[in-house]
Amino acid sequence: MEPEIQRDPSVRERARRRRAQQVQRRRLVLGVCVLGLIVVISALVVGLPRGSGTATTTVTETPGTTTTSLVAATYTADLTGAQSVPAVKTVATASLTLTYDPEVAALTFVLDINGLTDPSVATIYEGTPGAFGAAVLTLFAGPAKTGKFSGSLAEGTIEDADLTGPLQGKTVGDLIALIKAGNAYVSVGNTSHPVDAIRGQIK
Predict the structure, then answer these.
(1) Among 170, 194, 175, 179, which residue's Cα sits nearest to residue 121?
(2) In this structure, are 99 and 197 located in the same domain?
(3) Residue 4 maps to a domain
(4) Whole-prediction pTM value?
(5) Which of 11, 78, 161, 187 has its CA 20 to 30 A from that of 55?
(6) Rounded to 5 degrees, what angle do the CA atoms 136, 150, 188 make?
(7) Same structural domain, 97 and 6
(8) Residue 186 forms part of a structural domain
(9) Could you tell me if 77 and 93 are in contact, meaning their C-beta atoms sit under 8 angstroms apart?
């Protein structure tokens, strides 16, 4: 058997260089890929609008809002003759409670009267204390109660379609925005004072 012929050292050197070149090319390709990935991620981060990391939507206090992200809240009004415009001398009072439940997206109300004679209408108006405004929601439209009345005059759920005047075609969210801005009051009228027999700002 003939002894194994040893390889030429120059052949081994060429093979070693080829392997080194292959390793270098692979490293170069990997580096280019990593650099490209960094560039893509940076472009995505820069292109995102500020605040896009949060999914919470808030309701602005201007017309055109929706009830999608309203939180649970209660709004009240204490009605007296002294708040009427002009003021009415009476011992009659009333209280309005509005409650928003976000789980069912419903705004409910209860209007209780204490000692008002012949109450005939109850309405929420747009306006600040001491000023007249346009009607935006009727809570009670009759028939009028006869004599001195105490008890629940009206209660129920307010729907978008119930809104009128400046809020017609808008949402319950717009009504709540009006209340939060301090720009809504409730008025109860009777046979003697068809508007503002007693009145109170909703807070």
Answers:
(1) 194
(2) yes
(3) yes
(4) 0.66
(5) 161
(6) 20
(7) no
(8) yes
(9) no
Closest listed residue to residue 185, CA positions, set 84, 106, 66: 84
Is 124:184 a contact under the CB 8 Å cutoff? Answer: yes
Convert the pLDDT of each residue in 90-127 to its tens digit. 999 999 999 999 999 999 999 999 999 999 999 999 99
Q: CB–CB of 133/181 below 8 Å? A: no
* Whether 109 contacts 101, CB under 8 Å: no
**Domains: count for the chain:** 2
Helices marked H in the chain — which ranges?
9-47, 172-180
Tokens coding 53:
């990391």
Q: How far apart are alpha carbons 13 and 19 in whole angstroms?
A: 10
Q: Which domain holds residue 160?
A: 73-201
**Inter-CA distances, 16 with 5, 21, 27, 113, Å:** 20, 9, 17, 100
